[in-house]
Write a structure and sequence with these properties.
The protein has about 120 residues and is mainly β. It contains no helices and six strands. The strands form two sheets. A three-stranded antiparallel β-sheet has the order 1-2-3, with no helix packed on it. A hairpin with a 7-residue loop joins strand 4 and strand 5.
């Protein structure tokens, strides 16, 4: 685990933070391309479920979806090494405030192409 999420070398994820409840997207490929905090234009609301999807079938244009609608920005992680090991995770980080955050997860589905690549 890395307490400084932006230091994780290889990743593609959604990030939700800030007073505006922004849903952000990010992707890094081992220092080649580092894309942080792209606002999707969508916001999360307490007590409302959202469906989030990341399509990494083309590493040069990773697609992000919120409730079935594709986010207008794609992220290039084409420099990701074929030996890079990615793992799905959900994390809540506590800021300096006194609020205790929580998250309800209804369903997780992870699929990958086990081709010869």
């Amino acid at each position: 685990r890395n307490a400084t999420l932006d230091n994780i070398a290889d990743h593609a994820w959604f990030r939700m933070e800030g007073a505006n409840n922004n849903i952000l997207i990010e992707g890094d490929d081992n220092g080649t391309t580092d894309t942080n905090d792209i606002d999707t234009g969508a916001d999360w609301a307490s007590g409302t479920y959202v469906t989030l999807k990341i399509d990494m079938s083309d590493l040069s244009a990773v697609k992000y979806f919120i409730d079935g609608q594709q986010v207008t920005t794609t992220i290039n992680v084409g420099g990701m090494d074929s030996a890079a090991l990615l793992q799905p995770f959900i994390e809540i980080q506590k800021d300096a405030g006194t609020v205790e955050h929580s998250i309800d997860i209804d369903w997780i589905d992870v699929r990958w192409d086990r081709g010869t690549n």
